[in-house]
Design brief:
The chain has helices at 22-29, 49-61, 83-100, and strands at residues 9-12, 15-18, 35-40, 68-73. By secondary structure, it is α+β, with helices and mostly antiparallel strands. The strands form two sheets. A two-stranded antiparallel sheet has the order 1-2.
Amino acid sequence: MTKMNPTESTRRGAGALPIASAAGRWAVLLATCALLGVSGWNDARVPAWLPGKFVAAVQNASASGKPVLMNVNYDDKHFTEEKTVTFGNFAGQYAFMLWQTGHKDFQPAN
């Protein structure tokens, strides 16, 4: 694996994205993938803007046309004790994964 120089740029369309931070380097590496960022609005451990900033960096670096989405849970914190909320969150994440891996039951209707 080659190391990236923090001052390098990667080409995207007509512009260039400077790679100046670890999040920026990861964003460039993930720019070919579909991504679902998840955040809790009331999370005391991870501020909601932090994953949002990362998702925005991936969206900016992506030229693949694959979705880069952000899901913000406004009701819960880092973890929740409510199993129905937890199961609903996991169901949404699995549905995204199945959609992106091409499962026939999770593709948009024509």
